[in-house]
């Protein structure tokens, strides 16, 4: 373990770390999932609860995973090992089960996440080639027919596009955590911001845009219920990539002088800002062209092409929009892959190239292919009434991530104790550190248990 620590690289600056974490936590959570959930759950009411949930559970849990990750600066399994330095007492090996659960969760999410990337590439290519012609206004039926023909009923086409997305990840990952991921994120994240701001400005200048802004920002307090708030708390875990080792892995490359509190606040704030901006990118245009915002998961893929077909230079803006989705997906997929790759390198002593191949090919073969075929050729194969695609989503998002996050909070509160405070801050007896520690130890586990139980009933 000592050798691993000595060889471990560190981020070149706080900015590059924050950009990488922002990329890891933005992804489809902000650009695809957040907007459709807002549309389904009362607009401004959901946005308000999301911001509150980020403060109540998001930032405290970012700090939990940062403390665990930087403490030993190893992979997301061994991060739960070693000993308590002050007492010289070995930590039970059973805590490493949390790391293995995180790996299973990472596999589960990547099993379907990469397929969504394949969908996005399909839209980009068809927009460029004219396979999806939006030079003239299209109807709901046209958008739906394209989705059914090219997404649901063209499995081998999606297999090819998903493989292309995996190959892009492979090329970047092969250059390493710093040379590949960090260097790519330096360019990808600013590009994502430019695309995002451009789309927001375009949509806010549409006639009737303010009606969409009102729906998006003005809370309907009658829609705020305890059940909705619990649901939103759960979505924050997905939005911040909590519970499957991403933040533990990324923070293991942080130097010991870095201020974890500052980086956690910046991470939570950045994720919230990007998610909120994505809403401004979508809802004004929906209301301008009288399209219902409650389309659910198909909002981006079936409703927005109709919007773009009504816009001046709609094809250009559609390509920019789906390009933005692809960048967001890429910055997230790179970091989730890295969780598993780092484990293979450090636990099995695999060369990086071999670890990358096993990770990407294994997930493609046993995750991506079943997810794609589960919507058509294997549509009769279900688990607890859910398709293969939805089963991966449910198991990873509602069970594995929640249990892993619960375990992380308990590990910090009841195992690391004072060591966690010292890792968090050079002033472990400060008011903030004491409040955070007791909140994580006693309150956060209750919140997670409530979310977990509500997801199962």
Number of contiguous helices:
17
The SS-based structural class is: mainly alpha
* CATH topology assignment: Amino acid/polyamine transporter I
Annotated CATH homologous superfamily: Amino acid/polyamine transporter I
Low-confidence stretches: 1-6
The overall number of domains is 1
Annotated CATH architecture: Up-down Bundle
Instruction: Please report the distance between the alpha carbons of the first and last residues.
Output: 42 Å
**Order of strands across the biggest sheet?**
1-2
- Tell me how many strands there are: 2
Question: What is the approximate shape?
Answer: globular
Report what the structure shows:
- It is a single chain.
- It contains 17 helices and two strands.
- It is mainly alpha-helical and 457 residues long.
- It has one domain (16-456): Amino acid/polyamine transporter I (Up-down Bundle).
- Strands 1-2 form a two-stranded antiparallel ribbon.
- A hairpin with a 4-residue loop joins β1 (83-84) and β2 (89-90).
- The protein starts with a helix and ends with a helix.
- It is a multi-pass membrane protein.
- This is Transporter.
- Pfam families: SNF.
Features:
457 residues; mainly alpha; two-stranded antiparallel sheet; Amino acid/polyamine transporter I
């Amino acid at each position: 373990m000592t050798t691993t620590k000595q060889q471990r690289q560190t981020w070149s600056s706080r900015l590059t770390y924050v950009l990488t974490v922002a990329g890891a936590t933005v992804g489809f959570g902000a650009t695809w999932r957040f907007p459709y959930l807002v549309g389904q759950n009362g607009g401004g009411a959901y946005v308000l609860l999301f911001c509150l949930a980020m403060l109540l559970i998001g930032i405290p849990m970012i700090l939990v995973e940062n403390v665990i990750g930087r403490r030993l600066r190893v992979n997301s399994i061994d991060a739960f090992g070693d000993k308590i330095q002050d007492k010289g007492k070995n930590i039970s090996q059973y805590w490493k089960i949390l790391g293995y659960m995180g790996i299973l969760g990472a596999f589960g999410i990547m099993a379907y996440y990469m397929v969504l990337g394949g969908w996005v590439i399909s839209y980009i290519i068809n927009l460029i080639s004219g396979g999806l012609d939006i030079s003239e206004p299209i109807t709901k039926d046209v958008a739906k027919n394209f989705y059914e023909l090219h997404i649901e009923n063209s499995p081998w086409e999606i297999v090819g596009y998903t493989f292309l997305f995996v190959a892009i990840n492979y090329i970047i990952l092969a250059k390493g955590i710093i040379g590949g991921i960090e260097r790519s994120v330096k360019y990808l994240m600013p590009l994502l911001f430019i695309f995002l701001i451009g789309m927001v400005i375009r949509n806010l200048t549409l006639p009737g845009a303010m009606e969409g802004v009102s729906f998006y920002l003005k809370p309907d307090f009658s829609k705020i219920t305890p059940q909705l708030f619990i649901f939103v708390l759960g979505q924050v875990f997905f939005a911040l990539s909590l519970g499957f080792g991403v933040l533990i892995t990324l923070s293991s490359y942080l130097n010991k002088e870095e201020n974890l509190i500052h980086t956690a606040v910046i991470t939570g704030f950045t994720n919230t800002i990007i998610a909120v901006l994505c809403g401004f990118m979508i809802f004004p245009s929906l209301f301008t062209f009288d399209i219902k915002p409650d389309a659910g998961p198909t909002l981006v893929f079936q409703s927005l092409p109709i919007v773009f077909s009504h816009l001046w230079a709609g094809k250009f803006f559609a390509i920019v929009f789906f390009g933005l989705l692809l960048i967001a997906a890429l910055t997230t997929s790179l970091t989730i892959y890295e969780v598993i790759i780092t484990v293979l390198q450090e636990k099995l002593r695999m060369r990086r190239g071999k670890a990358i191949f096993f990770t990407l090919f294994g997930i493609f073969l046993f995750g991506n292919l079943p997810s794609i075929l589960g919507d058509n050729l294997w549509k009769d194969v279900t688990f607890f009434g859910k398709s293969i695609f939805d089963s991966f989503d449910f198991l990873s998002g509602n069970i594995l991530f929640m249990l892993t996050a619960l375990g992380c909070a308990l590990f910090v509160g009841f195992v690391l104790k004072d060591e966690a405070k010292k890792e968090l801050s050079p002033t472990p007896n400060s008011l903030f550190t004491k409040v955070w520690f007791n909140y994580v130890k006693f309150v956060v586990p209750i919140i997670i248990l409530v979310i977990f139980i509500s997801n199962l009933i």
